Amino acid sequence: MQSMLTKFESKSSRAKGIAFHPKRPWILVSLHTSTIQLWDYRMGTLIDRFEEHDGPVRGIDFHCTQPLFVSGGDDYKIKVWSYQTRRCLFTLNGHLDYVRTVFFHHELPWILSSSDDQTIRIWNWQNRSLICTMTGHNHYTMCAQFHPKEDLIVSASLDQSVRVWDISGLRKKHSAPTSMTFEDQMARANANQADMFGNTDAVVKFVLEGHDRGVNWVSFHPTLPLIISAGDDRNVKLWRMSETKAWEVDTCRGHFQNSSACLFHPHQDLILSVGEDKTVRVWDLNKRTAVQSFKRENDRFWVIAAHPEINLFAAGHDNGVMVFKLERERPAYAIHQNNLFFVNKEKHVRSFDFTQNIQSPSMLSLKKLGAPWVPPRTLSYNPAERSILVTSPTDGGTYELINLPKDASGAVEPTDTKRGTGNSAVFVARNRFAVFNSSSQTIDIKDLSNSTTKTIKTPTNINDIYFGGTGCLLLCAPSTVILYDIQQKKTVAELAVSGVKYVVWSNDGLHAALLSKHNVTIVTKTLEQVSSLHETIRIKSATWDDVGVLLYSTLNHIKYTLLNGDNGIIRTLGETIYLTKVKGRSLFCLDRQAKPKLLDIDPTEYRFKLALVKRNYDEMLSIIKTSNLVGQSIISYLQKKGYPEIALQFVQDPQTRFELAIECGNLEVAVEMAKELDRPKLWTRLSAEALSQGNHQVVEMAYQKLRNFDKLSFLYLVTGDTEKLNRMAKIAEHRNDYTARFQNAIYLGDVETRIQMLKEIDLYPLAYVTAKAHGLNEECEAILEASGLTEEDIRIPEISVPIPPPKAIVPTHQKNWPLRAASQSFFEKALLGQVESMTIEDEAPSGTNGFAMDEGAVDGKGFNGDLLDVEGEEDAAGWDMGDDDLNLEQVGELAVETDGAGVGMSEAELWARNSPIAADHVAAGSFETAMQLLNRQVGAVNFEPLKPRFMEIYQASKTYLPATVGLPPLVNYVRRTIEETDSRKILPAIPRDLESVRTNGLQKGFAAMKANNLEEGVKIFRGVLHNLILATVQNKSEIEEAKRIIRTATEYIIAMSIELERRDIATDESQAKRNLELSAYFTKPILELPHRQIALMSAMKLAYTKKNHVLAAHFASRVLANSSQGKNAENARKIKAVSERSGQDAIEIEYDQFAEFDICAASYTPIYSGQPFVQDPFTGAKYHPRYKGSICRVSQVTEIGAPASGLRLLAQ
Amino acid sequence: MDPFSSEGELLTIHNAFHGGQYSAVINHDTSGLSAENSIPSTVYKLRSQIAIGQAEEVAIELEGQDNPDLAVLKAFAEYSQGSTENAVKIVESLVGSSSDNATVQIIGATILHAEGRSEEALTLLSRHQGSLEAVALVVQIRLSQNRTDLALKEVLNAKRWAQDSLLVNLAESWVGLRIGGEKYQQAYYVYEELAQTPSTSAPRTLIGQAVAELHLGRLPEAEVALQQALEKNPKHEDALANMIVLSILAGKEIDEYLSSLQNTAPSHPFLTDVAQKSELFDKSAAKYRAKA
């Protein structure tokens, strides 16, 4: 039974009964030695022992909801226990022989027992009474069980029969006395045939005969009408029943000794049985064939039990119990970028997209892989080949290499599979995989055709292999992990970590988590240990956050650990899961049914800790602001980690705030909190901290609060505050505190006071000595007189000259000691809102003062900068870019590739052949044809300005791949058709696409306009034109856009040129007319609205200053028409009002506001509608006919009025 | 036994040389090698020295050697220093006398191809006996002749008998970068594997990775790889040339790299090519003039 997994084993005497706790990881074992044990099988610990039975205990059962269990033993007794109070609650007496089994009913307060006294009894454990005795078996009844849903009981007896009993009568009798009609009573009385004792509570429904010897065990199927029984005839028999009859279906033969117990698998179509032949056997329910068998050397099996919820079984034998699983529940899965590949319970391969949260349909069926009932163990995915490697533990380990179908079209059987034997198989490179063979301890490196390219002998005995970074493997040995270089066949690094079972690589491939049963070890890609942590609960899986946080799951928690080892709990788990990916708040995982699941987690805590470690205060701040992270744990964490100043920001509780403030030396907060709390203890601590900081003002306050006069006095002394010291002396006097008075007097050097005080307390000798010492002879006399003595009566020792108290040199008391400027952390500042970078400020340079007005401008106010960026939607005017055929000879024939020797055609030449676009010819280095094309398409004649663009395109067309040493690099050609391999369709990559023109060119031009940087603006817009004359686009709509951009650039160039021309003559009074005209023409080109306003304002103001009031009013109206609010509008309104009053123009100019006209781009004079004009074929700029044949002033490349077919930007 | 097979003594030095890890080759301990492998390993060491610009030392060291392996290397060293005529003469005589020698074939063909006599180089190489290096050289010559079809054929042939070899993988990638489409990705995998494995990472492999990424249109990734290459060797001319190409495509400044390239390798094909095209532009542009 290769895949049976033992989870727990206990050593004891013979185990006769077993019961799983439905919720907790507990198991009750009743022993042949009268003991009942309660084990925690997850932790492997004995929780309790119950020893009140006398002799073997055979029956045991947990109640499914109450903290109760029941046991039955050879002392004929049934005992009901509380595992909470750990004692027997009561004993049910009545059986006359050994009790074999006891079971609780799943909902009624009933206990079912079977006994060697041939009876089956039902007890009510609430009123502790026997409610039914079922007789009929004529030998020991070995087992009796309730049906999980219906009112049925099944029993097995050594009389070789299995009986099914109907207990619906009993239920009715004992259910709450609802109104039962007479008819009901009659019906009930007649419904069941009374047995021979007239008992209608429980009647035999079926008697199943078929076993040739006594039957030891029997149980119902959880959902189907099936019964399974095991007997001394070594057979396990399957029975089926209907409403009316029951019959034998089949027999499972295989045990070669008495079969002692059997049951149905709670979730799968399997039967499990145990026997005295020391085996546990698993049978296929549908085929009744043996699936697996497990043999113990010396121990006969006596009992088997299934966990009601999870996939666990327990079997009792001569020397204890074993808890086991039939199969690994970890689904085989692999993750590649945003995709999860996994094998589900049906053995179908599926994928799951993390970004869209979508599960694919089945892609493959692995039914044929390994043996039935044995799920695949691992899956390794190869993105380059889109293939998977699956391993199965069947037959000592097998692997299969399978290509995934392009589309998931259902669970198809794979066709082209390659297989072999091996315990683990992982991809190690695009076209290589490693297969580990545990028995021979070799690793085969195989290519995709499954042939071995090299064989590696493992450097030590290992258990498993994992991908170890490119070209490397991680070998997991029992006590170490080895990083092994496949190419060089040598150990690169080794790290002592024991029992590593899984390896999880971080997304960036820099770190790996090594998971063993109870340890997580984080290592770098070179196998240097970063951190390690221990878990008491088994670790199941792990996944990396993008920011370098490892999330891992144990049996009951999701936890995290940072690289530095800081860890914590994210949430608890109800069921075991396998983490696959974490993205923000979403945690993806697979459950034990191999279904993808999405859990919501709160990453705040670890994000915060990570930000703390990285000192990313912005992030911390935003976390604090947006989430309620205030918990004792985070505060103590911060405190512990040495960030009390940050913790301070979280805390509201004054006491804690005080502590933190003291810890980080923030006196301000500490004082505030101390005032609020006003407790002596706090003031004491505050004073100590303040003293150490030299903040004696706070110290003073604290001492005052504490009424600590001595210290206050001393403080005043050392800070030289004599005034206050005097006051202290007064206070001492008030308080009648002589010591204090004395002290203060000493501090002050006030001898008189001292003598006075000594006298007051009748210490005349001291007073006398003091006076004497200070040479106060009058005072001496007075004292002597008062005490009635004379000088001769007194003998005093030699008195030295008294030292006067030193005077403070510096008036320290006036100010605190200077401290280093309190360095507020960035964090604190941020919280106080002092950090500017925290607020997103508009970076618009408000200083750019628009167009400097000419001398005498109305009020000197320039165009202000708050222009709106209006998306202009002007239509490109009649600029033919149609799909006219080119005159260029299209070299349409295919290149016939000859097989002989000789030189072929370079890709560059292909490009030129494949495209009618000038830019493509430039990239191909075929400048001549490119120029030809431009000449024909847009009449280009002056190519010099285009040279940088030509060179730019050409330079970006090729890459240089160093190949053979000593030879020039191999040249490869950069394509924009990345996926194309057809030589007739490949085309070069052209730098600066439409998008970059839009964002870099146009926007910069607009910015130049806004900043009044016109020369620069003209250059930028001309650059845009030169860029677009050699460009390619992706589709028709982009052609339209390109046209629009060319049109816009043209208009701007004309407008800016007019204004520049005007500025040249602005100071020349003789040109006043032209000056005005040009300023008027400046308003003609179609500019973006804010820029048009600039032109209009400029024209208006100039007209106004030149006293052309009609004109000024006209422009003012146009300004107002565009926007009626803001300063511009106000100005315009004023000017309009003034101008309209005047109503005449000082200078007559050639500008008819009512006529339709364009501006000639060369002469900057009007071309009235109806007048003849010529156009530039590229820009569409209009000129007076006399300019025909000259170079376009706008593009400086094309010839005005040249015949042209229109610019081609799209290949087809 | 084939000394270059996975069990062979020369595999490490061979792979290091073709992965561009010249210092690893020069420092490789060859004292334990068997007699028949001592000459090939010396050849690799000398070639590595030439590759890192110590051609002069090599030429002096090999003065008077008449062993064809070393003689042809001396010619190569001289050729690298610029005395091409003499070198070509030596090669011609060696080709006449010992055209079966693998080193003569490879170095000879390299010089001949560099001299523009590619057909002669191919004829010489056609005499090789299972030398992967010869195969790689043929592939490169074919590619430089724009005969991707023949290069591919050569690679497919070689793959039949030496699938696992580094050189075959590289040669396949060279061809793949010409063919494009899915092959770009495959070439990328080959180079990425080499470049990202610490033991084989070198500017050459990083450039290979970057070039593949550039062709795949993954400019930011390509830039990272090129930066890594330039970190390892800030004057690597091919890295600089590709960096210029990449910067233009990404719309970034190129001046720094361009001046750097002009200083380190004024004769790099990129520069000569561009200079040539600049002339062509002026010549072609002169043909057009406005009517008025």
Automatic annotation (TrEMBL), chain A:
Domain called COPA/B TPR: residue spans: 619-774
Primary subcellular site in the record, as a coarse category: cytoplasm
Domain Coatomer alpha subunit C-terminal residues, every copy: 826-1210
SMART domains tied to this protein: WD40
One GO BP: retrograde vesicle-mediated transport, Golgi to endoplasmic reticulum
KW Signal (keyword) present: no
Any one of the GO CC terms: COPI vesicle coat
The organism's place on the tree of life at top rank: Eukaryota
Repeat (WD) residue spans along the chain: 50-91, 92-133, 134-175, 208-249, 252-293
Alphabetized UniProt keyword annotations: Cytoplasm, Cytoplasmic vesicle, ER-Golgi transport, Golgi apparatus, Membrane, Protein transport, Repeat, Transport, WD repeat
Keyword Membrane among record annotations: yes
Molecular-function annotations in GO: structural molecule activity; ubiquitin binding
SUPFAM superfamilies the record matches: C-terminal (heme d1) domain of cytochrome cd1-nitrite reductase, WD40 repeat-like
InterPro entries, sorted: Beta-prop_COPA/B_2nd, Coatomer_alpha_WD-assoc_reg, Coatomer_asu, Coatomer_asu_C, Coatomer_complex_subunit, Haem_d1_sf, TPR_COPA_B, WD40/YVTN_repeat-like_dom_sf
Functional description taken from the UniProt entry: The coatomer is a cytosolic protein complex that binds to dilysine motifs and reversibly associates with Golgi non-clathrin-coated vesicles, which further mediate biosynthetic protein transport from the ER, via the Golgi up to the trans Golgi network.
Entry protein name: Coatomer subunit alpha
The organism of origin for this protein: Tuber melanosporum (strain Mel28)
UniProtKB/TrEMBL annotation, chain B:
One BP term from GO: intra-Golgi vesicle-mediated transport
UniProt KW keywords: Cytoplasm, Cytoplasmic vesicle, ER-Golgi transport, Golgi apparatus, Membrane, Protein transport, Transport
GO molecular function, one term: structural molecule activity
Domain of life: Eukaryota
Matching InterPro entries: Coatomer_esu, TPR-like_helical_dom_sf, TPR_rpt
Coiled coil feature spans: none
Keyword Membrane: yes
One cellular component (GO) term of this entry: Golgi membrane
Pfam family, one: Coatomer_E
Compartments where located: Cytoplasmic vesicle, COPI-coated vesicle membrane; Golgi apparatus membrane
Membrane topology: Peripheral membrane protein
Function: The coatomer is a cytosolic protein complex that binds to dilysine motifs and reversibly associates with Golgi non-clathrin-coated vesicles, which further mediate biosynthetic protein transport from the ER, via the Golgi up to the trans Golgi network. The coatomer complex is required for budding from Golgi membranes, and is essential for the retrograde Golgi-to-ER transport of dilysine-tagged proteins.
Family: Belongs to the COPE family.
Name this polypeptide is given: Coatomer subunit epsilon
Organism, as annotated: Tuber melanosporum (strain Mel28) (Perigord black truffle)
